[in-house]
Amino acid sequence: MTACPPSRKKINFWNLFPMFWLVFLAYPIIGFFDHPRPPAQWLLFWGMTAGFLAVYIQVFFYRRDGPGWALAGWAYSLVAYFVLFPVTGGGATAFLIYGASIIGFQGRVSLALWLAVFNVMVMAAPFYNGQYTLEDLAWLGPNMVFSLVAAYANHASYRRTVADVQLVQVQAEKEKLAADAERERIARDLHDILGHTLSVIVLKSELASRLAERDPARAAAEIREVERISREALQEVRSAVRGYQGSGLNAELARAKVALDAAGVKMNVSAALPGLTPQTEASAAMLLREAVTNIVRHARAKEVWISLVPSAGGHRLTVRDDGVGGLSAEGSGLTGMRERLRAIGGTLERGGEGGTTLTAQIPAAEATAAVGGMVRA
């Protein structure tokens, strides 16, 4: 009864898969219908079964994991076994297996295994009072082993889910710290570039204003000096802005590899990247950054394939992963990128089979300029 981490955004296969294991409720149900039952036993059996289903759905479908739900689910399954064993016989053993499976969804592996062992001992108890014979080991033995395996496997699944959540939190915190550091750097640069220069411009402008009537020649010289200083400041600002605009697609690929390696995802680049114009390279780099961010946060992928190849009228960038896939609503990042590509005459397509595939058609610089001219017209 190993549960796979589901997508929390929508109902998909991974949410529904744990429901498959409910087929083992057939054993206590068959035992209950083995012969006619009085109304009191009907009420007892179906009431306990309904309560178990409610707990099971909370744990496996809605992922109410953690010590509280895990212990509550294990305890309820144990009570269900003791209450229903006199009614259904050995079929009630299914509840002990479910309990061993549920107890795995908390952070202590020792607790999961010890309580699973306790369930196995409870399974074997009927041997001591003669209710089971050695022939019953044929079906009871595999159930004992499966209980221990289910407890450990679901604990591993729980730990993986916790690790994924922590990885997303760490990645978000790193991005926030990087953004804060970048804002501080920009603030320092602007202060260093413009603070002193603007002060000099103000002083020289005031001086030129005072000299305008009594010494026009010197006032004109001061104004020419203000013009020179202003041009130099403008050049420094332009140089700083070019530095803020990023360092190209190769640098973005290097950052993507660092992020994917940290998330345990292998990155494959299909071929050497072709030479690009600055605008095309900037669009490709921004799309790659957004795609990698989504993969790290949501895809649960093992591998990523990236390619950038020439195509009719420009270049085609493809980013494909083998994660959970799906076509859920796009976030603001992809929506913004789609609009940005549309503004320069490009397109962005997304596929959700066997993972997620983003395919961006980025127009050549000439086509981009033509589209820009049409928009301005």
From TrEMBL:
> GO cellular component terms?
membrane
| Protein keywords | Kinase, Membrane, Transferase, Transmembrane, Transmembrane helix, Two-component regulatory system
Q: Does the keyword Transport apply?
A: no
Transmembrane found in the keyword field: yes
A family per Pfam? HATPase_c
Domain annotation Histidine kinase/HSP90-like ATPase: ranges: 279-366
Entry's transmembrane regions: 12-30, 42-62, 74-99, 111-131, 137-153
Q: Which GO terms describe its molecular function?
A: phosphorelay sensor kinase activity; protein dimerization activity
Q: What is this protein called?
A: Sensor histidine kinase
Supply the source organism for this entry: Deinococcus marmoris
Identify the taxonomic lineage of the organism of origin.
Bacteria, Thermotogati, Deinococcota, Deinococci, Deinococcales
